[in-house]
Amino acid sequence: MKRILIVEDDRALGDGLCLALRDPALELTLCRSLSAARSALEAGDFALVILDVNLPDGSGLDLLRRLRAGGNQVPVVLLTANDMETDIVAGLESGADDYVTKPFSLAVLRARVNAQLRRTERVQTGPVVLDGFSFDFEDMEFRRDGRLIDLSKTEQKLLRVLVENRGRTLPRELLVDRVWTDGAEYVDENALSVTVKRLRGKLEENPSKPRYLKTVYGIGYTWTAGEKEG
After folding, report:
1. Long-range contacts (CB closer than 8 Å, 24 or more residues apart) made by 99-106
2. 121: closest CA among 70, 47, 33?
3. Cys-Cys link to 216, which of 49, 54, 169, 175 (CB 3.0-4.6 A)?
4. How far, in Å, CA of 36 to CA of 106, rounded?
């Protein structure tokens, strides 16, 4: 599970960020001051920091510079109302990986956060072998019992999210966000049902009684299969 530290003193915005980034694969920690953020960073590692620049007890840039000076290369996305070019340059030169000015779309911020997390993900070094399946997401080669299976790009994206989170139930809204939106404001959730049906048709022996890509009614979907690394 990846841990994200959110440093934002505005109570409504901080709560909104936690809601927008809610994900069963993420653990969110919200701090409302620099001192609280420092304590959180000293207590454990994070996969990403979302950092407000203007905080009640100082500048987020000071914390960012301190992190980089100490060799901590955790990705940092800055949030600020300062949209002057010089402010943006100062943030990036201090070591920020991205810079978002207020007001901003939560969907766009979520897409940028996901992009930063993808950059730091462990690279899969070979196909994932699951109970007769072989899924090579890097070379886009998918097999069942040695037989090649042709998957569309959308089917590949959905399968990858499910397989990488195998054993966990993923909500429908999370899957829609991961596979389709990437910052878009609206996607018809029927697209998910259609793609699940197509995947089952290609992967399951009996698509009407799926063994692997299962529905968890009222919540979403899960992938269940024994595994070994190939």
Report:
1. 104/79, 105/183, 105/185, 106/16, 106/17, 106/20
2. 47
3. 169
4. 24
The upper half-sphere exposure of residue 79, i.e. CA atoms within 13 Å in the direction of its Cβ, equals 24
Alpha carbon distance 37, 192 (integer Å) = 38
- Report the 10 Å Cβ neighbour count for 93: 10
Count Cα atoms within 13 angstroms, Cβ side, for 106. Answer: 13
Summarised one tens digit per residue, pLDDT across range 98-107 is: 888 888 888 8
Going by pLDDT thresholds of 50, 70 and 90, the confidence category of residue 64 is very high
pLDDT tens-digit map of 158-167:
999 898 878 7
Q: What is the pLDDT of residues 131-145, one digit of tens each?
A: 889 999 888 999 999
Residues paired with 223 in a beta bridge: 213
